[in-house]
Amino acid sequence: MWDNILATPNWDVAHAFGTDIEGWCVVVARRHIISLAELTDAEAGELGPLVRDLSRALEEVVGSTKTYLAQFAEHPDHHHVHLHVVPRAADLPEDSRGPGIFSRLGLPESRWVPEPRRDALASAIQAQLAPRWPPAGG
Q: Containing H/E element for 51?
């Protein structure tokens, strides 16, 4: 479940693994592109509402005060457009805020959000997104 929160015509949403941040999601382009400049009008038009709605869902599900959004497409194993949508808790330590959030990814497996918890979070996020996705007219 955690790796299949939502599939739209252009994007897939999954809970990230390798992190101890509950609700850290990735939004992955369904076709292989390496730059946001390669987005079609349809992909770009869907992305904004999707990120907004996912951010709202994360506020509801994990109680985040805001979300961080990052996109690099530089990882050697995933040189493909994918956006990190990361819930930022009010009590997140200062050294993990802003770009420091990436210190909370790529952790040893013993520190990951456990798979059953990722599944439960994914289900709750999916339930929050369901009334809006697919969007009307989409």
A: helix 41-62
pLDDT digits (tens, 9 = 90+) for 19-62: 999 999 999 999 999 999 999 999 999 999 999 999 999 999 99
With both helix axes pointing from N to C terminus, report the angle between 41-62 and 115-129 in degrees, rounded to the nearest 10: 110
Strand-pair partners of 108: none
- The helix or strand, by DSSP H or E, that contains position 67, with its residue range, turns out to be strand 66-71
Tell me, yes or no, whether 88 lies in a domain: yes
How many distinct structural domains can be found in the chain? 1
Is residue 137 included in any domain, yes or no? no
Task: Check residue 83 and report its DSSP letter.
Answer: E
The CATH number for 108's domain is 3.30.428.10
Q: Which domain holds residue 80?
A: 6-129
Distances (CA, A) of 45 to 62, 69, 77: 27, 17, 27
Instruction: Give, for 129, the enclosing helix (H) or strand (E).
Output: helix 115-129
User: Domain for residue 35, yes or no?
Assistant: yes
